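User: I'm writing a tutorial on reading structure tokens. Could you give me a worked example: one chain, its sequence, then its tokens, then a sentence or two explaining what the tokens reveal?
Assistant: Sure. Here is the example chain.
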Amino acid sequence: MFERLLIKKLTTNLHLVIFGAKGVGKTTLVNQWAKNFGTYLYLNLAETADRHFFVTGDSWDETLQSIYFLKDKSPRGTRNLVFLDEIQHCPEAVSWFRQTPAILKNMSIVATASVCSDPLAELVALEKADLSILNLHPFTFEEFLLASGDTEALETWQEVPAPASASAKLLRYFHIYTLIGGMPEIVNAYMTDRHLSGLKPFYEYLLNRYLEEISAKVYGNKRSETLQFILQNAFPYAATRIKFNRFGNSGYRSRETGTAFKMLEKHFLLRLIYPSTQVTFPAIPDRAKFPRLQFLDTGLVNYFSGIQKQLYLTPDMSAIFHGQIARQAVGQEIIATESQNYIAQSDPRIFPMTFQHDLHFWVRDKAQSGAEVDFVLPYNNFLIPVVVRPGEPGRLRSLHQFMDVAPHPYAVRLHAGVLGIQQTQTIKGKKYFLLSLPYFLAGKIREHIEGFRKLVEG
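And here are its predicted structure tokens:
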């Protein structure tokens, strides 16, 4: 399996909880990182034998000694790693992790979880200064390029600004990445033989794993039925605003549907992104308005929506399905790269229980208004509007309405075209600067906004 870029950001004196859906590579990441340690203790808390260490009532030190002894290991050198895999299966292990001394010489303790259980939510809420939190996502486009072995393409993507000469090649790569998604096993299978047609079993296997995991955690046939219905039928609604009541033309009411969506959020399979009506920092989500559905992985969306072939044939994915897949792909890129940049405690952008994050979208706070901007990103105490749309600037009506009341002159458009900056104006005549980026640069959007601002300001 390909090495994740995150490994370079992990230090060997780190106490860390890694959250993420099944299949995003949490265990693989820690196993790869473990090569930096002299002693490595692995405990699979989905298994009864390893949960036994934590239910004996022993002290923190006594439990650690038991782990070393029964795993035939001994503290060695300056680097020791204790890995508690799938910690949500053992509340006592969460309690033990919670008691970890702030200063623990020569040792890192790392836990992974594919469900944010109540004990884990309480652990995160403590905001311990020595505890780091990471939300792990599928491969980013940068990691996809790294896995492809095309060093030249990776290096040109990493340049800021990205050279126009590389646009056609990077666009082709991004379309393949968007088509298959970033789930590590699927990327690995594709990179092995470069055949799209052989990936079907991997998508089916992942969905079955999710259904089994959810069914095992849910009590009651009615609730389980609702969850399974939503997970199997929600993919075509990716990157669109949804209503809970009778979702997917079902007979389910708002309360049971909302509860099911929250459960799927706890399993990291999707998130509900709520709009903001503000144009000034910070963006405060309005939870009284309909949210937009953002899925874990665009490849899963494409496969289970049955649109892989249509997507494969298009040169501009922002021009099909009302820009739906382009929004999903861009949202996935921004969320994943933002999370990689923050391995820090008490940062609301990566709080795993509620999925609070700087990623929001904007709607006009006016009755009967259909104005909507795809994303707003905080930057230097501004909210920068980002639209994922083709066409000339004059056609970006919702963006114009945002810029008419925004206290700054900066806007970003992601499209299938080339990188460029132009001064334009709204329908009402307000002048502003528009940065047009190829949508394969969504993962580098902050770096390009920084260069854009400096260039405009001279």
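What the tokens reveal: The radius of gyration is 23 Å. The chain has two domains: 5-135, 201-457.
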